[in-house]
Structure formats: structure tokens, C-alpha cells
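Q: What does the assembled structure look like for these inputs?
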Amino acid sequence: EDQVTQSPEALRLQEGESSSLNCSYTVSGLRGLFWYRQDPGKGPEFLFTLYSAGEEKEKERLKATLTKKESFLHITAPKPEDSATYLCAVSFSGGYNKLIFGAGTRLAVHP
Amino acid sequence: GAGVSQSPRYKVAKRGQDVALRCDPISGHVSLFWYQQALGQGPEFLTYFQNEAQLDKSGLPSDRFFAERPEGSVSTLKIQRTQQEDSAVYLCASSLPGTSRSEQYFGPGTRLTVT
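A:
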């Protein structure tokens, strides 16, 4: 069964304390892995797309990496404004263009 | 703004009522998706349109759910005879002509509460 699992469910960090979020997936024929940020009461906001193992992308304090089984979202020296839920999603061969999402990691960064 | 818009933002319906949720995708985006998001969960796929053609409706939970995009732009998700389990946030997303490698851009969602 095609599945995406994110860990941890929730993470509390002090401002400046770097950490990583994990997204593991089991799909046949990965086409793309997507990271989104979701603030309360809003729709998911696109962050990154990764297509193949070994690929990395960076944006400000965020860096996403991809292996054949999982992806990591590394957060370097986070600030309180990085607090949000981070969602991971995959698209796959035979799935048309739909995304399968994980349940997300709720990140809280405290000053 | 040129983002995806949805209306209404909030909808309260009594059990058994019909509701209609609207999505205006980003101009020029051919692909349109509907997702359902329960509290504390990730979005779950409902249905997919490419232009006016509904290519995948495998995620619609029952025949009470119906979606259309008659002119290949605005889309409406209709839920007939609403039930309490239909309470959720309904998200619309659009993407450029597309492939499964294209990122999807989401609207703010419609929060549906069935009482």
C-alpha cells in the first residue's frame, strides 16, 4: 500500500536549536517528493520538490534531502516564525498527479 | 493576488442539507485537485480534473460527493445529504499542465461543520 509516514508528530525547539524532520515513504515508482508548510487556518504552502535520490534543495534556514526510502527536512538555527506544521507528500507512477500526504510534523520554536 | 481562492471560507450545515463549495484556480493552471483534511491529519485526495475532464475520482468517499469543472476553470464540489463525518476542511489545489512532477498550489480551504 502506498504510504507516507512523518516523524516526529510534534517537535519543540528553542530558537537557534537545529533539528531534522523525517518523511519515509513506500510507493511504487516515485515521481516526486514535496514538502509543504501549513499555518493554522491556512492551506499548505509549497516549499520544495525533490525528484531523485541524492538531490538536495535549500531555502533560507531549510534544507531538504532525499534517499530511496526517506526525506529529511533540516532546519538550521530556527526562529519562532518557523513554527508551523510541515507536510510531506509524494506523487507516483500510475497515480495520475495526485499527492499522498503524511500526517505532518507540528513544529514549535520558542524564543 | 493570483493565488487559488475558495469560497465560502466557513460553512455550517445541518445534517441532511446539501452544500456547494467553490474553487477558483490560478489563471492558466490546467490541473485542479480537491482534498479533504481532517483535524490533525494530512490532506487526503478526493478528485482530479485536467481542464474540464475529471480523470480521477477514486478518492470521493461516497456517491453523495460530486465535483464538476464545466468550463475548465472554476470548480464546484457538492456534497448531498451531509453527514457529521463530512465535517472537515476541503482544500482545492491547482498546477500547471501537468505532470506528477509538478507542484500543486493550495487555496485557504473551506471549513465545513455539519451539526
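The mean pLDDT of chain A is 95.
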